[in-house]
Prior knowledge:
Number of strands of chain B: 10
Oligomer: heterodimer
Shape of chain B: globular
Distance between the termini of chain B: 49 Å
Strand content of chain A: under 5%
CATH architecture of the largest domain in chain B: 3-Layer(aba) Sandwich
Structural class of chain B: alpha/beta
Bound molecules: adenosine-5'-triphosphate, magnesium ion
Amino acid sequence: MRVKKRLPAIITALCLLFLWQIIAMCINAAYILPSPVQVAIKIWELKEPLFTVHTPATLLVTLVGLVISIVLGIALAVIMDRYEFWERALYPVIVTTQTIPVTAIAPLFVLWLGYGIWSKVLVAVLITFFPITISVHDGLKSTKRENEELMKTMGLSSLQIFLKLKIPACLPYFFSAVKMAVPLSIIGAAMGEWLGAQSGLGYFSKRMMTQLDGAGVFAPVVVLAVCAMLAVAVITALERKLIAWRKEV
Amino acid sequence: MPLLEFNNVGFGYKTGGRIVDNISFSVEKGELVAIIGASGCGKSTLFRLITRLEANYDGSIEVNGEPIEKSGAIAAFMPQKDLLLPWRNILKNVALPLETLKMPKQERISRAKNALSRVGLSGCEEKKPSELSGGMRQRASFARTLMTAELGRELLLLDEPFSALDSITRTQMQDWLLKQVRSLDKTVMLITHDIDEALLLAGRVIVLCDKPASIARQADSSMIKSREHLFTPQAIQLKEELTQLLSADAVLREADTEVTENAR
Lengths: 249, 264
Ligand SMILES: Nc1ncnc2c1ncn2[C@@H]1O[C@H](COP(=O)(O)OP(=O)(O)OP(=O)(O)O)[C@@H](O)[C@H]1O
Ligand SMILES: [Mg+2]
């Protein structure tokens, strides 16, 4: 049943891969467009450095970036939900930060924070903390005032109302935000590495670029995409478990 | 001494004009009082004052002879919509008010189960609100109100408990509520815009009219104790009078909205 539902998507993906293979074979220049088969072979050849050094490096940056974003995002969202003053003070500023082209100023971070992981973490955080903050904030605001008032008449404290009403109502928003943030965080990490690093998939891809190794550029990109897909799948499974009630509404 | 007493109460929300004015009535312990009035006239607003969701009213509201601010919460409030939490099952929804008390979980559950069987929802404990019909949800909401009442609240405030139901279910639920209320040892205030419902369920009917709303009439309806009594000459006469009051008010309201719309 589940496979059947996904069959159209799988077929489409296979067709695209096939098309890519054909075009690459026509061009016949791996430094311009390597074929999927060439990329797959490359991944196999480079499995040692790819999977023992560079993938863990990138995933570490992604994870640290995500954790910081989530903690920061939730904290800001809760403060803005609780205190109207802070909402008015912070919300417009947070929205404005989104217009800053992180990509353009990212080289500065390397200057400030060096070639270690923190310059990359900063890129990842700047890209991901916004969607998380805004979504969690929307989630907290999504509860109906009537529900809150009813709980007040029952004699529940505002902390209890927060725990029993706001947090459960917010969970679906939180999960969709994290699902959006995971790929963004990986992109942010890779972008940071591209700008200057000693390890990581972004760095690896750039090094292959300088060697005009087309398949070598694609190999880490494919690994990145697979990591993102796996992470989103894990989160989706968790989401299904925690907020099963949502489907029934 | 009355359980609840309004003296010349007036109130308006911060954002708008006056909603109610010159409201004076009292409710004795054990009474069942209905409030009727046109939609939007301010019935629910009175409940918001009694549950102290709103303050800054004029006049005085007293509970057992003391200002309402000085007495603890007296009311268990059943809102117009069921407002059941979609992520909690029925049992946990009903047990919610008990979570204000320090009480072993086991006891909370057994009390909520009792309330559910009382309203005829045994077997639905594990179901989510979305799996119940409208009438069942209203009954679950009533059971939750009973749990709130167990926190030592003397007064039940029922805000149009059956407005969301079709007329057949509604009739059933009215009979059901009558039985429930008679077997409970509580004071009840009931909002409705259905005259029959008010006369049938309540011992006294308060009619709100005008804008801002004030009490146009308080009618004794204690002689109507069952559905058959609704057709005695006395009841028909009373119904006639109340209908006239309300429809005169409706005409007034319509004229009022026309004026404001023309002014725009
Ligand atoms: N929280 C609020 N803030 C501002 N205005 C409100 C609020 N609640 C109600 N009102 C206004 O007060 C008036 C009376 O509302 P209320 O809910 O008391 O009417 P009601 O008699 O209960 O109507 P219905 O029968 O439709 O439930 C309405 O005009 C409404 O717009
Ligand atoms: Mg109302």
